[in-house]
Predict the 3D structure of the following.
Amino acid sequence: MGKLSVNLCGIELDNPIIPASGVFGYGREFAALYDLDILGSFSFKGTTLHPREGNPTPRIAECPAGMLNAVGLQNPGVAAVIARELPEIAKIFHKPVMANVSGFSLEEYAETCAALDAQDQVGWLEVNISCPNVHQGGMSFGTEPESAAAVVKAVKAVAKKPVLVKLTPNVTDIAAVAKAAEDAGADGLSLINTVLAMRIDPRTRRPVLANGTGGLSGPAVLPIAVRMVYQVYEAVSIPIVGMGGVSCARDVIELMLAGATAVEVGAANLTDPFVCPKIIKELPKIMEEYRIESLAEIIGGAH
Amino acid sequence: MEQLRLVIAENSALTPWVYRLVLEGERKETLRPGQFVELALPGRFLRRPISLCDWDANHLTLIYKVVGQGTDQLSRMRPGHSLDVLAGLGNGYDTACTGAHPLLVGGGVGIPPLYGLCKQLISENKEVTVILGFNTKDEIFYVNEFEALGARLRLTTADGSAGQKGFVTDALAGIEASHLCACGPMPMLRALNRATDLPGQFSLEERMGCGFGACMGCSIPTREGQKRVCKDGPVFRREVLLWEN
Ligand SMILES: Cc1cc2nc3c(=O)[nH]c(=O)nc-3n(C[C@H](O)[C@H](O)[C@H](O)COP(=O)(O)OP(=O)(O)OC[C@H]3O[C@@H](n4cnc5c(N)ncnc54)[C@H](O)[C@@H]3O)c2cc1C
Ligand SMILES: Cc1cc2nc3c(=O)[nH]c(=O)nc-3n(C[C@H](O)[C@H](O)[C@H](O)COP(=O)(O)O)c2cc1C
Ligand code: FES
């Protein structure tokens, strides 16, 4: 085992760095820039049962130290992802990939997860429970422990691969949702998704985003992510994939000390396409600085 | 696409709000007219997309208008400063399909990319006609530069303070062209689409997350499904666009 390696739900990662879902597409744009095999893994764009065109534009807004997005889960649907995207990923990435799944009903989650679970390339299912439940007035599955647990049960009933449940930060008590997911059988948790936000253009006196609200990410949310990973680590015993605002190796160490086993990097990839290779290169140096022998030993070290 | 660190060689006002930025430094990849770059500005999270106006072996020329905080910050940066630049973004104009008499139509800060395009078309021995539209005479830039390239030029201003009074569409009369290349505000592009039947290419703008195709932040519906303005565009063939939107 290398000093950067960690074990995520039984799968060894060469290092804990994983580009987050939605900022990395299916890897193609980044494979033109660097060898993706240096990554721990990557999480591909959120996949739904049916194709989705996403929201009208503008989908992007800026803020100090971050950005808002309201892409609206644009993706070609699970059948096309399996037929077209996974074979392309196989050419540029030779490790287990993380399949990010979204749904608008329990049946959709189960069907999409079952299809992706059957693919050899897929190492983990990362189930995004921030989506609205169309059968319950559009409330997000991830905001109540009960509805979160229901998604986990539906997915675990069909999946053989490890299931990571991706939690939304837009809740009062994230530890309660995390515990409910663990009790329902989740193999791991990943957090945080984006923070619900809005910007208004003083010139037009209207929200900047066509969707009105969007999800905040980038350096602005790092302290929220650190706090939530810390709280969830106290509440559960399954591994946590931490993310939110990571842009350098120091941020990775911080999230791991809070309790993360691996770390996803989101919005930073959009502004610096080389951020992940940079972080991986920086890690040994910063470990020396903080006298860290191996990354695995610092997981939850702040508790 | 490549990431470059380029030094500001010139950053000067062409009009009270429009600046020319010349960036100097080495690069490897070849560029095409209609492509754009993304500038990282200190303290701003997202990069700013700006079209390529002109370039040579180790210079890029960009023309930008101060419209908000980022472009205002940029306008205050002095020569000698260096900038982190992603270059070679987007598809650019296809010059192979323009025929012998291309017509270029630009409005406001849609004009800069047409300069590089005009230069390329003239180097391909094509007879280029250019219509440039401004609001008023004080906002005019680059008219002489287009003429110096050898393009036939028509100028319009909305208030009639220079050139023909009216919009670019008012200057179409009598032009025999084989193809249209346009860049400018969406209302201008729509008006052009209504005013002529020429086959053509239109350059669009959209707010961007990455600028290189990864985030779907700039994705718009077209006749061929969702397309990313940053990667599949910014230049789209006329028949691909959904004009009713
Ligand atoms: C492909 C492309 C080419 C462009 N070429 C040119 C050019 O050659 N010259 C020029 O003057 N302008 C050009 N623009 C527009 C230019 O990107 C914006 O004017 C600029 O980003 C405004 O930044 P700001 O910080 O001053 O404005 P703010 O309103 O403070 O910016 C806030 C955010 O919105 C984004 N934004 C604001 N307006 C636009 C816009 N019109 N298009 C895209 N993003 C926007 C900014 O990038 C930033 O992320 C181009 C845009 C695109 C998409
Ligand atoms: C443009 C964009 C698209 C995203 N799409 C998804 C998605 O499809 N599924 C998902 O689970 N998370 C998605 N996210 C959330 C990120 O994966 C991540 O949880 C969040 O952005 C926080 O990390 P960051 O601050 O490093 O960006 C998206 C984020 C961005 C910026
Ligand atoms: S801006 Fe990210 S895909 Fe176009």
